[in-house]
Amino acid sequence: MDHLVLTVIAQDQPGLVERVAQCISAHGGNWLESRMSRMAGQFAGILRVDVPLTGHAGLLVALDALQAQGIRVQVAAGGDAPLSVWQAIRLELVGNDRPGIVRDITRLLSAHGVNLESLNTEVVPAPMSGELLFQAQALLGVPQSLSLEQLQTHLETLADDLMVELKLQADD
Question: For residue 81, what is the DSSP state?
Answer without folding.
Answer: P
